[in-house]
């Protein structure tokens, strides 16, 4: 069988009118008189023939040399001997395969962002009818079902055809909830089909008190719990949870997992999750999604949980002799004692009281080139401490901010865009914050490594949660600063991105000899990034106590 190729054109990046059409000029097939690349008369974008393409990559290289990088050409694995399940159009993203939904079980999906997990969700909820790669013709449901005849998917797809599948969906980016829902939490709870169940779930999370709050005043963790509660409080055949652990602390993640597992008793449950410990605890079996983000995605066969996670980390599917990542993902096995001893600042003990909540933190020292990680439950005062260090909140004991007179960069917990920022392009948004630095080689290299470069021409409002997180982290790293404060930078990032971002942040802190406080709930991420740890204890929403920074080696 000849090797199949897929060519994807990112129309947000394509500058065909500026080139003009140099991809056509360098194509050897076009030079022989065949039409491998032609111009679409309506859109004026180039159109690539995947049948005539010989895979030379000259068009890709020329586009990259012009710094447009709009063309992706990938030789597909020979194992993909069938047409895609769905393709969004000619020279657009293609998805191969679907996970097997099993009643009474939780199916976990693990894979990079941009690999087709949202497309899978849209198909399985009935929001998107798959076209079997025939994007120009209407494909009948009978044809779709015939493709999966004799498999566990057949009955499920027949249910979609007859519109008998009732679905409930927990979205990824919970930060957007206040933009579409107004009023108090208890008013929303009262409108849910199973409001008694919703109240029970909030009580299980020990978050009943949040019912008295306005939705606009909720923290990231509270928004996540509200979204999970709303999804579970519907009578459905199919429950889909997109990254339900983001913003949740360790205890809340375990509660979430137990509540989601309860839903699987009488329904199909599909969960996208990047926290491997949560995925292990939550799932009955796992599908790996692999491919190239924004180009194509492939859904593997189902695996047992441990085998699936280990296969994903290894990046190699033995049964298919398929390597989908150049090397395995590895985690440090032991903590390393920090050797950073050059004092940067002493920070004082803080005291702060709000209505119904009080916080006391111990004094400590922050060294040059050091990252201090901050761990603890939600509602315990971690973000309040960060804001007191930053000078955004004044402590009750009238202590002057320890960073007064220093340049500070701060990435908040919730990624919320103003109405003006939503309509800005990514490059404009970054340039407004850091000026001409976006044209420097160092910035461009980091933007490429962190995955922002490919989105520079997109509107901020079109970005996913993970893409927005990467933009905000990049902005924080390139704003002038002596100290940087990062609140939950791993939220919405996939496994590869979390390790990459941890390395980028740690390298920046070390080489620049600036210092950092980082709040996060992902213990593997924290282990990769932190030199020392501050632990916050107490009773969530009532009182908190922050301990002085301590060694990772401390027992």
Task: Outline the structure in words.
There is one protein chain. The protein has 555 residues and is of the alpha/beta class. 32% of the residues lie in helices and 20% in strands. It contains 20 helices and 26 strands. The strands form six sheets. Strands 5, 6, 7, 8, 9, 10, 11, 12 and 13 form a nine-stranded mixed beta sheet that branches. Strands 17, 18, 20, 21, 22, 23, 24, 25 and 26 form a nine-stranded mixed beta sheet that branches. Strand 22, helix 19 and strand 23 form a beta-alpha-beta unit.
Structure summarized in a few sentences:
Helices cover 32% and strands 20% of the residues. The chain is of the alpha/beta class and 555 residues long.
Tag the structure with descriptive keywords.
single chain, Rossmann fold, 3 domains, 555 residues, alpha/beta, nine-stranded mixed sheet, Alpha-Beta Plaits, 20 helices, globular
Binned strand content: 15-25%
CATH superfamily of the largest domain: P-loop containing nucleotide triphosphate hydrolases
Largest sheet: 9 strands, mixed
Count the domains: 3
Low-pLDDT runs: none
Radius of gyration: 25 Å
Topology at a glance:
Layout: E1 5-9, H1 22-26, H2 28-31, E2 37-39, E3 46-48, H3 58-65, E4 71-75, E5 86-87, E6 94-96, E7 106-111, H4 117-124, H5 141-147, H6 152-161, E8 167-170, H7 177-180, H8 185-191, H9 195-204, H10 220-232, E9 238-242, H11 250-263, E10 268-272, H12 276-282, E11 285-292, E12 296-299, E13 303-304, H13 305-314, E14 316-317, E15 322-323, E16 343-347, E17 350-354, E18 357-361, E19 364-367, E20 371-375, H14 382-390, E21 408-411, H15 419-422, H16 426-434, H17 441-450, H18 465-478, E22 483-487, H19 495-512, E23 515-519, H20 523-529, E24 532-539, E25 543-546, E26 550-551
Parallel strand pairs: 6-12, 7-10, 7-11, 8-9, 9-10, 18-25, 20-23, 20-24, 21-22, 22-23
Antiparallel strand pairs: 1-4, 2-3, 5-6, 11-12, 11-13, 14-15, 16-19, 17-18, 24-25, 24-26
